[in-house]
Each structure stands twice: as C-alpha cells, then as structure tokens.
Amino acid sequence: MDTKVCLMSYTPKIERLCAAAMRSCYSSKAAHELYLDQENFTQFMVEKLINKAVELGHYSVLEHGVLTFSLQGVSRVLTHQLVRHRMASFSQQSQRHVNIEGEGKWYITPPSIKDFRAKIKLGDSKLNLSYDDFMRISAEYYKILLDKVNKEDARFLLPNATVTNITLTANPRELRHIYSLRCDPSAQWEIRDVCWTMLALSYLIAPNIFSTFDAPAKNSKATLLKLEKLKNIVDEQRNDFEKLDSGKVFELNLEKFELEHIVKALIVKL
Fold first, then answer.
1. pLDDT tens digits, residue range 28-50?
2. Quick check: bond before 216 cis, omega within 30?
3. In this structure, are residues 252 and 203 in contact, taking their beta carbons and an 8 Å threshold?
C-alpha cells in the first residue's frame, strides 16, 4: 500500500494570523485590525515578525494556527511514536471495526529485513520463514479467528507492521517540535520520511515558520543541508501551487529528495 501524506486543511494566511497576534501585544490596535490592514500591515512586516519570533524562540504566537494532516498507509510502529506528541490531536483507524485486507498490502516491510529468513523450530518441524511468510501465516490465522472470536480479540494477533490511517491536527509550534525530533538522523526511518514530507507541505504554506529546525535536528550539519535541499525543491513548485484553484489537490513532487521509501505528498488548496 502506498504511503500518502495529505495536508487536508490549514489556517488560511496562517503566517499573517500569527504575526498579527504577535504585533497586537505591542500595539494599540487589536489583532483583527492589524490582520485586515493590508496597506499598513504589509507582507514584509509579517515575514519580519515571524522570523523574529522564531529567532527568539517566542513560539507561543505560533499556536494560533492549525494544520490537519491525513496519513495513509503508515505502520502502527509509526503511529505508536507519533501519538506520544501530546499537544496534537489524533483520530486513528480502528482495528476493532476495520479488517485487514489484501494480499501483501496490509503491512509495511522494513528494508533491512526484506530478504531476511529465519529457521524456526515448531514442534518436530523446522520452518525456514521469510518476513512475508510470517505475515501470510498471521493473516491466515487472523482470518480464522474472525470466524471464531470477537474481532476485538482477533486483532491481538496483528503485528505493529499493520498499515493504518491516522489524522493529525497540531499548531505550528508543536509541528516544529515534531519535525525537529523526527527529521533528525537518529529517528526511525519510516517516521523520519513521513515527517520530512509533512515538513515539505508545511513549508509550502508557511515558509517563514518552517524554514529552520530546533534541537536536536539543528545540531546536525547533514540535516541542515538536507533541509536546504528540501526548501529548494518546494520553492521550485510554489508558483504551480499558488496558481491552483481552491479545492483542487496538488501533488508536491519530492522524487529528487530521495526519501528511504516512497511517500506521496498531497495538499488541498484552500
């Protein structure tokens, strides 16, 4: 199953909103007056304020916007890590109500064990099993259990490799925190690829908020170089996205970014 990341909703003019909230702290005008004042509260001022907030670590002003992602075809290994970020909201596909389906499509295969085989002793028999063999046995056992026990009990057999879908909503402050942890080289490969993809889509709609990392990612020279490469790839496609009509889906091409596995990046133009 293809892994897809879709930025399905986000606060329109999210940087302008956060900048207006920031400026209102030092102005006699309310945030909405600043936000609506296109003549005096210019795009240059918006960018300057956002960059200043990020530079000084005044991240509270970034909490006024939200982004909602739909992640499809990811493993429960990934989601077990993702839901640890408690300042985000999650809605995940239920294994109690949704059966696994498809031959070879219901689980994620780590590249490191794709061709690995192991000899397993089962009673008097010796089995030489590949990763796919084990998954096929699990799927067959699961199907048998579905006819014998409650689905909520049959799901105990399903491994962490099982694919799932999850919806994530978070503000830019929390997303910066997530990306700074999960885009770091020490992060697990699957969530790292997905978070780089989420970052690319975030940068597309809020380039000043998502142009830098915090620790630990900012301490890795290789990661900072990779970030610059990603920004260049996204910037090359920005005009095509901006020309798109509202309600259309835009696919951000990240083929040149060379992720460890294929992740499609989609965004709904608001």
1. 999 999 999 999 999 999 999 99
2. yes
3. no
Amino acid identity, residue 30? Answer: A
Q: How many helices (H) and strands (E) does the chain have?
A: 9, 8
The answer to whether 209 and 50 have CB atoms below 8 angstroms apart is yes
Please indicate whether residue 192 is annotated as part of the active site.
no
Instruction: State both tokens at 152.
Output: 């909520």
Per annotation, catalytic residue among 23, 155, 176, 182? 182
pTM, full prediction: 0.95
Identify the residue whose tokens are 């294994």.
95
**∠ CA 204-215-62 to the nearest 5 degrees?**
45
CATH of 3-93+164-268, one of 3.30.1360.170, 2.60.40.1230, 3.30.1780.10, 3.90.1150.10: 3.30.1360.170
Answer yes or no: are the C-beta atoms of 185 and 222 closer than 8 Å. yes
